[in-house]
Amino acid sequence: MPEGDVVHLTAKRLGLALDGRVLTRSDFRVPAHATADLTGRAVLETRSRGKHLLTRVEGGLTVHTHLRMEGSWRISRPGRGTPPGDVVRLLLANEEWQATGVRLGMVDLLPTGHEARVVGHLGPDLLGADWDPGEAVRRLSAVPETTIGEALLDQRNLAGIGTIYRAETLFLAGLWPWRPVGAVEDLDKVVRIAQRLLHANKERPNRVTTGDARPGRDTWVYGRAGRACLRCGNRISRGEMGRGPQERLIVWCRHCQPERVTG
Ligand SMILES: [Zn+2]
């Protein structure tokens, strides 16, 4: 599932292909915007905001897309077909490049001045130029009885974390995922760890949270349920928490992230 780092890198790639160039083709394959045509307009800039992508186009329009579970943007030379079975939701092309949005979870076209409607609810963006850790901590603290695991995934608190960075951040912070936010002593530290992990991975396709890129050693707990913890050797646990069919997976080490803190 794409998280903030992947979306950030996607925005960068889209920007390199589209920004500053005039669209020679636009093809919205979603009912709400099936007749929209951006041909002849220049793309001004492409930005990520949490897990959202905003492509701003001449004439005060913004193409808003979200990768959700399995979406991706592919960059190719114009006129290239897509493999059969690919569900293309949006195609944007100029004379040099074609950007194909496959299995996008959301495709929307709105006035740039109305972007707040779709991203205004988001907390500080972990990879944004305006990242504000104090504000993220303030928002996390607002509902102290929420579990830290659910609070980190709530994009209204801070934007960019999915199940992978949630698991890795909680491991590095030594926190049991179900601990209430109000009982977490150092939220500042938690937020710093999450931001450091996303930053370290924002330019690279293969995610590494351990500093060791070898397969099976590139994450502390995510993808390692049932295997030995890289730190203590105990078996990594797997469970579910919170709501939403896709966002429930949680993996953690019972030894490194104890339910009860002693000493
Ligand atoms: Zn452990």
Distance between the termini: 38 Å
As laid out across the biggest beta sheet, the strand order is 1-6-7-5
How many individual β-strands? 10
SSE class: alpha+beta
Order of helices and strands: HEEEEEEEEHHHHHEE
Taking all Cα atoms into account, the compactness measure Rg is 20 Å
| Ions, cofactors and other bound molecules | zinc ion
Q: Average pLDDT, to the nearest integer?
A: 94
Count every helix, treating DSSP H or I runs of 4 or more residues as helices: 6
Molecular structure report:
This protein is an alpha+beta fold and 263 residues long. 23% of the residues lie in helices and 21% in strands. The protein is built from six helices and ten strands. The protein has helices at 4-18, 116-119, 133-141, 148-153, 163-173, 187-201, and strands at residues 25-28, 43-49, 52-57, 61-66, 72-76, 88-93, 98-102, 106-111, 236-240, 249-253. The strands form three sheets. The protein has a four-stranded antiparallel sheet with strand order 1-6-7-5, with helices on one face. Strands 2-3-4-8 form a four-stranded antiparallel sheet, covered by helices on one side. Strands 9-10 form a two-stranded antiparallel sheet. Helix 3 packs across helix 6 (187-201) and helix 5 (163-173) packs across helix 6 (187-201). The longest helix has 15 residues, at 4-18. The model has no long low-confidence stretch (mean pLDDT 94). Zinc ion (ZN) is lined by residues 229, 231-232, 234, 253, 255-256. Residues 2-113 form the Formamidopyrimidine-DNA glycosylase catalytic domain. Residues 220-258 form the FPG-type domain.
